[in-house]
């Protein structure tokens, strides 16, 4: 689990990032989880945009992504979800 200080630190880092994934009408599927997991391994911190036509609630989507990717939910703001997962080989972010 991330502490409040660590979440603030990650939110500040994520502020300048652009969303690299979009969740739309189809919701979350296995293929999407695999590519997101690869991106998390490479970047450690990603933003995901939830489109207007998404049929599921953004809280539900956030929970599915968090459990499916075994990642930490940093923030949900508007239709944007920020996720963090420590990389095994490519560690770049040192948490306070």
TrEMBL record:
GO molecular function annotations of the record: RNA binding
InterPro entries given in the database record: RNA-binding_CRM, RNA-binding_domain, RNA-binding_YhbY, YhbY-like_sf
Q: Which UniProt keywords apply?
A: RNA-binding
Q: Which Pfam families match?
A: CRS1_YhbY (PF01985)
Answer yes or no on keyword Mitochondrion. no
What domain of life does the UniProt record list for this protein's source? Bacteria
Q: Where is the CRM domain?
A: 1-96
Read off the NCBIfam families from this record: RNA_bind_YhbY
The name this protein carries in UniProt is Ribosome assembly RNA-binding protein YhbY
Upper taxonomic lineage: Bacteria, Bacillati, Bacillota, Bacilli, Bacillales
The gene for this chain is yhbY
